[in-house]
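Many introductory courses stop at the sequence. We go one step further.
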Amino acid sequence: MEKETIVIDGVRYYADRPTSCRGCFFWKNRKAGCSLKKENCYYLAESPKKKSPCNGCCYGPCVSFCMKKCMNEVFKTKMEVPVNA
């Protein structure tokens, strides 16, 4: 289950982020500002991970070539029957 995210000024935050930093638990005061700073904001969301073609593959992570592709090609050539047979 992934949390909902919002984008503010090109930065991805979790949707439960306060509208202003002043409403955050980590906000100290006007002079000191946030104790975590912008780079370490508690509400910063991680960038979504791209799905790999190896996700769900029964052959596991491939080392030098894709076993899934290789096995599909092998079985595809075995299944094909010549037209004039």
